[in-house]
């Protein structure tokens, strides 16, 4: 499947993100390859849910909370 967002810039404003989004959008947000995002989903490293057999989706609110938790845990390191 072609990455429909491949030629678009990374996301800089959460208003640009739909309430539920797919792997290519997550890849834009995280500036990673689609394949890496899918691997992270399979391994349970991202807050995603499966739609059908091969598709992953993300809830915007859960994704934002996840990223905030990562940011906060990184800033607490000494």
Helix-strand layout with pairing:
Elements: E1 20-22, H1 23-30, H2 34-42, E2 48-51, E3 55-59, H3 60-75
Antiparallel strand pairs: 1-3, 2-3
Helix pairs in contact: 1-2
Q: Runs with pLDDT <50, length 5+?
A: none
- Label the overall shape: globular
Number of strands: 3
What fraction strand?
A: 15-25%
Structural class: alpha+beta
Overall residue-averaged pLDDT value: 87
Q: What kind of sheet is the major sheet?
A: 3 strands, antiparallel
Widest beta sheet: strand line-up? 1-3-2
Q: How many helices in DSSP terms? A: 3
Distance between the termini: 42 Å
Rg of Cα set: 13 Å
Q: Helical percent range? A: 40-55%
Which series of helices and strands comes N to C? EHHEEH
Structure description:
The protein has 78 residues and is an alpha+beta fold. It contains three helices and three strands. It has helices at residues 23-30, 34-42, 60-75, and strands spanning 20-22, 48-51, 55-59. A hairpin with a 3-residue loop joins strand 2 and strand 3 (55-59). Helix 1 crosses helix 2. The longest helix has 16 residues, at 60-75. The N and C termini lie far apart (42 Å).
Report a brief summary of the structure.
This protein has 78 residues and is of the alpha+beta class. The protein is 42% helix and 15% strand. Strands 1-3-2 form a three-stranded antiparallel sheet.
């Amino acid at each position: 499947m072609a990455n429909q967002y491949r030629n678009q810039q990374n996301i800089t404003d959460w208003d640009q993100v739909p309430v539920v989004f797919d792997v290519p959008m997550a890849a834009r947000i995280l500036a990673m390859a689609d394949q890496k995002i899918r691997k992270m989903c399979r391994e349970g490293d991202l807050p995603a849910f499966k739609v059908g057999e091969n598709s992953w989706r993300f809830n915007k609110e859960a994704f934002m909370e996840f990223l905030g938790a990562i940011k906060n845990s990184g800033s607490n390191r000494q």
